[in-house]
Design a protein that fits this description.
Elements: H1 2-20, E1 21-28, E2 34-40, E3 43-46, E4 62-63, E5 73-75, H2 84-87, E6 90-91, H3 93-96, E7 106-107, H4 111-120, H5 127-130, E8 157-161, E9 167-171, E10 174-184, E11 187-194, E12 201-206, E13 216-217
Parallel strand pairs: 4-5
Antiparallel strand pairs: 1-2, 2-3, 5-6, 7-13, 8-9, 10-11, 11-12
């Protein structure tokens, strides 16, 4: 009887996971970049970081030249466009705060949106592991043992630190994502995952930091 009970429980769990995490096609940004989308709980997310170099009204986002300028800017990690995929672009928050960065019908997630995602995936301790792109060759323990993959497909895309030492950092180690929720007059909330644990945490960063953007459907 015990093996049968276990099998039934496994099938129920598997079917619930299939219903909860479901890829549902693609959307395109103003430049024609295509992004797969996934349902996670009651939310619909892009499965890739944003990589547009234009706002959704067609106007260009300038590539960064002066790291401290208080205007919207983007860059590729290490100034290498080969990092466009799979890591996407890195944006300062001045680009985010224009409200023109996300494709039409989509938006930059709030702190609450990210927290709902985290709660759906098991909370602070587990959610970071579940959003990571499956593939043992790109992760260290304990990430290889985390299942199920929910389709969010997170990579560790690094950032540019223009506060301490003006360097690109942490490719393969960490990812920060902007929220649209302001923390104080010079900082905005972000969410973060790391290579060496399965957690998903929040912090606040200065607006001139260059980090990743992931979009959620309105």
């Amino acid at each position: 009887m015990k093996p049968r009970v276990f099998l039934i429980s496994f099938l129920i769990l598997f079917s619930c996971q299939k219903e909860e995490f479901e890829t549902i096609g693609y959307i395109k940004d103003i430049e024609g970049n295509s992004y797969e989308t996934v349902i996670i709980g009651d939310q619909i997310w892009m499965t890739e970081n944003l990589r547009t170099t234009k706002y959704n009204d067609g106007s260009p986002i300038e590539y960064v030249k002066d790291w401290n300028i208080e205007k919207g800017r983007y860059c590729w990690y290490d100034h290498d466009e080969k990092n466009k995929k799979p890591h996407g672009a890195l944006y300062n928050w001045y680009a985010v705060k224009t409200d023109k960065l996300a494709p039409e019908g989509w938006r930059i997630p709030t702190w609450e949106d990210w927290d709902i995602l985290r709660t759906t995936l098991g909370g602070h301790i587990l959610a970071g592991g579940k959003i990571k792109k499956r593939g043992n060759e790109i992760w260290e323990e304990p990430n290889k043992l985390v299942d199920p993959d929910c389709g969010f497909n997170a990579y560790l895309s690094g950032h540019f630190d223009n506060i301490l030492d003006y360097k690109f950092k942490s490719l393969g180690i960490i990812t920060f994502w902007w929220t649209s929720t302001i923390y104080d007059p010079r900082r905005t909330w972000h969410f973060v995952i790391k290579n060496d644990n399965t957690g998903m945490w929040e912090g606040a960063e200065q607006w001139n930091f260059f980090i990743s953007v992931r979009c959620i459907k309105e």
